[in-house]
Amino acid sequence: MVGRVQPDRKQLPLVLLRLLCLLPTGLPVRSVDFNRGTDNITVRQGDTAILRCVVEDKNSKVAWLNRSGIIFAGHDKWSLDPRVELEKRHSLEYSLRIQKVDVYDEGSYTCSVQTQHEPKTSQVYLIVQVPPKISNISSDVTVNEGSNVTLVCMANGRPEPVITWRHLTPTGREFEGEEEYLEILGITREQSGKYECKAANEVSSADVKQVKVTVNYPPTITESKSNEATTGRQASLKCEASAVPAPDFEWYRDDTRINSANGLEIKSTEGQSSLTVTNVTEEHYGNYTCVAANKLGVTNASLVLFRPGSVRGINGSISLAVPLWLLAASLLCLLSKC
């Protein structure tokens, strides 16, 4: 801010006193209260700060100083900073105006007056507030269920921002006191989703950013529907599974894998699969197995296509009777996309 060579700080009071004595007289001097201690002025970063100094003694000389040296001596500007000017809305005012205030402007400023009787000073401490801003946040992350997860959110601001985390679910749980780090031990599938970091102080509205946490877990059959079928009609068996990544499906009749052919059609979308018999015959009745697998595991369910009026099998139960070799072969085949 200072544009001229400044005197040694130890000699500054003496030099300033001599400088003031050389200034032209006739400028009245008055401060709001020269007998008070330091006043605080709080300004938001980027705004304009006006440091007040009002004069009343026509025989006085005035100067503005900061921690670095002289800014103004009378009407003579010692600073090269174009943001700094005198504020003189009337002849009694000798205020300092600083435009586009930044954090390095913070500090003590002195309006120094040399009257006919004695020197007086009025100090103002400029406090610069900075809106909160998140400077660093974790990238989206994918982990396996049961892993430990640490999310990081760093923010800058003055005063120091308060950081809070919230899991963006219908309950919207907040994690109080976690601050920059949010640790989740043994994460579950229910804890997947978006997490919101909010940095807030009293300067302006909070800064908010999000990070997505994806939790991988092995398949679980959520629904399996057997069906009653009349010969000559169309019938379907349906199987749904929950898993991340989304599961791949296979269908088996006894130990034989079923393909879409010979009147059988398999349709699979994310999380569900169906086996449709376009024209039911006697040979289609019996037990079927739906297998769901992803890179973390494999599971299956037993379904029944039965005649009208016959005793219905256990609908949708997990089939423990399926040979282990079949499950292993299914997983290997699904992973290799055979």
Explained architecture:
Residues 1-28 form the signal peptide. The chain crosses the membrane at residues 316-335. Keywords: Cell adhesion, Cell membrane, Disulfide bond, Glycoprotein, GPI-anchor, Immunoglobulin domain, Lipoprotein, Membrane, Repeat, Signal, Transmembrane, Transmembrane helix. This is Ig-like domain-containing protein. Residues 24-122, 132-214, 219-304 form the Ig-like domain. With 338 residues, the chain is mainly beta. It folds into 3 domains: 9-129, Immunoglobulin-like (Sandwich), CATH 2.60.40; 138-216, Immunoglobulin-like, CATH 2.60.40.10; 226-335, Immunoglobulin-like (Sandwich). It is 7% helix and 48% strand. It contains 2 helices and 24 strands. It has helices at residues 12-22, 324-335; strands spanning 39-44, 49-51, 61-66, 69-73, 76-77, 84-87, 95-98, 107-114, 119-137, 141-144, 149-158, 162-167, 174-175, 181-184, 193-200, 207-225, 227-228, 235-244, 248-253, 256-258, 264-269, 272-277, 286-294, 297-306. Strands 1, 3, 4, 5, 8, 9, 11 and 14 form an 8-stranded mixed beta sheet that branches. Strands 10, 12, 13, 15, 16, 18, 21 and 22 form an 8-stranded mixed beta sheet that branches. It has a 5-stranded mixed beta sheet with strand order 17-24-23-19-20, covered by helices on one side. A hairpin with a 2-residue loop joins β21 (264-269) and β22. The chain is rod-shaped and about 120 Å long. The two termini are 73 Å apart. The model is unreliable at 1-36 and 313-322 (pLDDT under 50).
